[in-house]
Specification:
41% helix, binds 4'-deoxy-4'-aminopyridoxal-5'-phosphate, transferase
Length: 429
């Protein structure tokens, strides 16, 4: 990794922190700079090839460098930069999303997941006339001030009493302190949410949740949880917001809302929408989204819905619709999960796997599978780091906190290779 090491030094001269955030945050064994990615593979500046399950943090549902996406971006780039409200393709993309996503009647485009979350929160406030939000421990809703806090791992003691909603210490480095806007509860505990909402509904504009908790482990909602949130929100006129930045298109073309058959009022799609090109969408029921039209919600952004990024989204959705890769994503995902489970049993490792197939998490713990963020604190992070490092050094890239993403470019041979490599690594832990 000599070339990557040299580039990290060079980067540190001009880029705050030297970039390579995965390396810094998650104890990846090396800072890596890449030359290119193709299909299920990614290549670094030292000439190493990796079987990639990170997919640029999720967006590359079609794998690296899908030719149709690249071609669409190139073609539309040559037509010049047209932005939101200036070109037919934005309308076509919106029509497509309305067709695919169960709760989408009206929508707006933004640049990324973080921005779209903020728009959804504004819409919820405008419609309800209330100011506060409820969110859940360990869920990530972007890096902007009001939502960034609460994600970085606090100790169990810092979480406080289970039914004390003010649970997280402040993350450092935020520009403003707007914690009063949000209450935070443990996830998957409907009784607790019901109790809280019954007491506080007059102030609550929205409940926001990832429909599958993907940013700390990959934890599925218990069967009654999402329908329970839906009922509560109906009962009290609160917006139910699904943050589908990870689940969108990945668990199915209509997102987790289709998979679980629970319809939110507002939801957010980003990552996979355009294979990583910068575009996101906040979508919702007409009654909610029309607050943008009547001027009570400001929604702007010079770069929104740029011609080439819309092209990337249209091409991505076209390929997804044509090739219908989801059955394969699930099949390969389940195969990989089962293979890893078997490898763990054979090597006597306390590897625990949670998830759905298209994405899942691997952690090390002797405890029962986590059902919320607090449950994840039992994971052996040092062992996970050794596992991730071992995989990496044998040419398999997995997100450092133990998250695996499957793409439509993965093959049976890739799955077999990953299981074999993981078996080799588990023997060494
Ligand atoms: N919500 C969720 C669930 C996410 O996983 C992320 C990004 N990982 C975001 C919001 C923020 O999206 P972005 O990084 O595109 O701003």
């Amino acid at each position: 990794y000599t070339e990557s090491a040299a580039l990290l030094e060079r980067a540190r001269q001009v880029l705050a922190g030297g970039v390579s955030s995965e390396f810094r945050k998650y104890n990846h064994p090396h800072a890596i700079f890449y030359t290119h990615g193709l299909g299920s593979r990614i290549y670094d500046v030292d000439g190493n090839e990796y079987l990639d399950f990170t997919l640029s943090q999720g967006p590359l549902l079609l794998g690296h460098s899908h030719p149709e996406v690249l071609q669409a971006v190139q073609e539309y780039s040559e037509q010049g930069q047209l932005f939101a409200g200036q070109h037919l393709r934005e309308i076509k993309l919106a029509e497509k999303l309305v067709q695919l996503i169960p709760s989408a009647e009206l929508l707006r485009f933004c640049l990324d997941g973080s921005e779209a979350v903020q728009t959804a929160l504004r819409v919820a406030r405008a419609k309800t006339g209330r100011q506060k939000f409820l969110r859940f421990e360990g869920h990530y809703h972007g890096w902007l001030d009001n939502v960034a806090w609460g994600f970085s791992a606090p100790s169990l003691e810092a979480l406080g009493e289970r039914d004390n909603p003010t649970v997280f210490p402040w993350s450092q480095g935020l520009a403003t302190n707007s914690r009063d806007e949000f209450s935070v509860l443990p996830w998957n505990d409907l009784a607790l949410v019901e109790e809280f909402v019954a007491r506080n509904h007059q102030e609550l504009a929205a409940i926001i949740t990832e429909p599958i908790m993907c940013n700390n482990g990959c934890i599925l909602p218990e069967p009654a949880f999402l329908p329970g949130l839906r009922n509560l929100c109906d009962q009290y006129g609160i917006a139910l917001i699904f943050d589908e930045v990870i689940t969108g298109f990945r668990v199915g073309l209509g997102g987790a809302q289709q998979f679980y058959d629970v319809t939110p009022d507002l939801s957010i799609f980003a990552k996979a929408l355009a294979s990583g090109y910068p575009i996101s969408a906040v979508v919702g029921k007409r009654d909610w989204m029309k607050r943008i039209e009547d001027g009570s919600v400001i929604h702007a952004g010079t770069m929104n819905a740029g011609n080439p990024t819309v092209a990337a989204a249209l091409a991505t959705l076209k390929v997804l619709e044509r090739e219908q890769p989801h059955q394969r994503l699930y099949q390969y995902g389940w195969q990989l999960m089962a293979g890893l489970q078997q490898a763990a049993a054979d090597t006597g490792q306390n590897l625990q796997i949670q998830g759905l197939g298209p994405m899942f998490s691997t952690v090390f713990t002797d405890s029962a599978p986590a059902r919320d963020y607090r449950g994840t604190l039992a994971n052996d992070k040092a062992k996970l780091s050794r596992f991730i490092a071992g995989l990496h050094n044998r040419g398999v890239r997995v997100i450092g906190r133990g998250l695996w993403y499957i793409s439509a470019a993965h093959t049976q041979a890739d799955i077999d290779q990953a299981i074999q490599t993981a078996t080799d690594v588990l023997k060494t832990l």
